[in-house]
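Appendix C reproduces, verbatim, an entry submitted by the partner laboratory led by Prof. M.T., so that reviewers can inspect both the input and the predicted structure.
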Amino acid sequence: MTPESRAALEAGLGHRFARADYLAVALTHRSFGVDTPNNEKLEFLGDAVLALAMSDLLMARFPEASEGELSKIRASLVNADVLARKARELDVGSALRFGKGEEKSGGREKVSILASGYEALLGAVYADAGYEAARAMVENHFAADIEEHLTVGLRDYKTRLQEVTQRLFREAPVYTLVEESGPDHAKRFASEIALGGRCYGRGVGHSKKAAEQAAAREALAALEREHADRL
C-alpha cells in the first residue's frame, strides 16, 4: 500500500492509525499466506463492535422504538450487501492483499470478502483507538442510511399523523420545506408541519422524505400530549 492510498483510506475511515500493523492485518485475506496474520480475528471483533455501535446509534435516534423495531432496522443496515457497498466507497477492494488463487477468482469484487474487509477495518480502528473512535466511524458511514430508514420497521409517522388529524380536526397536515443546505452528496433538509396555521412539528433529514417523517413524528408526540383523552 502506497502512502497516498493509505492516507486516502484513513481519510475515508476518519481515523489515522497509531499502529500501522493493525491496518495491514485488516487488509490481509487468509489466502495471502499461512505464515502471515490475516484479518479473520479483526473481522470477528469488528462484527461485535458494529452491532454495539449501531445499536447505540439507533437507540439514540429512535428513543421510542421497541426492541423488535430496532432489531429490524439494524438487520436492514448491517448485512453483507450494505457492508460491501461501504467497502467499495472506501475502495477497500484495491487495498486488500490476496493469494494468487483468490486474486484470479475475482476476490476484490466478492461481496463476502468486501463485507468482511469492512468489519476487519472497523475492528482495527477499535483495537487501535477504542470504542469512541469505532463508533464515530460507524456514525459517519451510516448516518444517512439511518435517516433513510425512518420508516423501516417503525410506524409510518406520516400515515399515522394523517389518521390522527382527520379524527381530531377533519383536516390534513400541511408540510413545508423550510430549509435545504449542504453539498449535493450531503444534503440536509428541514420540514415543518402546520395544522390550522399552527406549527406542530419540525424535522430534519438527509432527504425530504426523512425530514417529513421526523416532523410527523414530532407532531404526533405533541398531539398525543394535548389530546390524550381523544386518542
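The mean pLDDT is 90. Additional entries are available on request from the coordinating office.
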